[in-house]
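in:
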């Protein structure tokens, strides 16, 4: 029996050491050397060096003076990230989307963009399409008392064109640039 047990236990211990300690340490070390910003969470800092969030995770912004991210089923909490799992035929989803659409609707701008009404799969998508940002532009410009053309230039600067897929805007980065341009009192 020991002829079978000893090699089996030795192999389990060796593989535990390799896959449970050596490999994770090697990957972490390489990531810290090659991609330190990404390996540490792609943190976004303000002018004083304070961490304000991550470029990879959406945050909830409220008030007319801010661009709002897409809705989150988990209130932007990373622990509860995920979709609401409400299907398109679910009355609760229809009620929430209808209520949000009624709140956001501006007659002069037409229908509310879908990205402002629906959650992403993770509930933490930090990006919005430029059309969803443009829909919010008049509200933010009025609240900040900044010309829409100046805000549009800010949005254009913040628009990213990924290698694959449509253009997107990181809402946190845009709101930070907006705060530098036209600070809200008390922020």
């Amino acid at each position: 029996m020991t002829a079978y047990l000893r090699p089996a236990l030795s192999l389990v211990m060796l593989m535990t050491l390799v896959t449970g300690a050596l490999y994770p340490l090697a990957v972490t070390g390489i990531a810290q050397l090659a991609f330190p910003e990404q390996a540490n969470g792609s943190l976004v800092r303000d002018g004083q060096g304070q961490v304000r969030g991550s470029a990879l995770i959406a945050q909830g912004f409220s008030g007319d003076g801010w661009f709002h991210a897409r809705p989150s089923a988990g209130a932007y909490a990373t622990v509860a990230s995920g979709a609401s799992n409400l299907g398109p035929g679910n009355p609760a989803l229809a009620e929430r989307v209808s209520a949000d659409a009624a709140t956001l609707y501006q007659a002069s701008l037409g229908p509310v963009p879908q990205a402002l009404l629906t959650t992403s799969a993770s509930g933490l998508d930090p990006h919005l399409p430029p059309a969803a940002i443009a829909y919010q532009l008049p509200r933010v410009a009025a609240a900040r008392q900044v010309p829409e053309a100046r805000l549009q230039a800010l949005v254009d600067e913040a628009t990213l064109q990924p290698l694959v897929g449509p253009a997107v805007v990181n809402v946190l980065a845009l709101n930070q640039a907006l705060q530098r341009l036209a600070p809200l009192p008390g922020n």
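note: Residues 40-181 form one domain.
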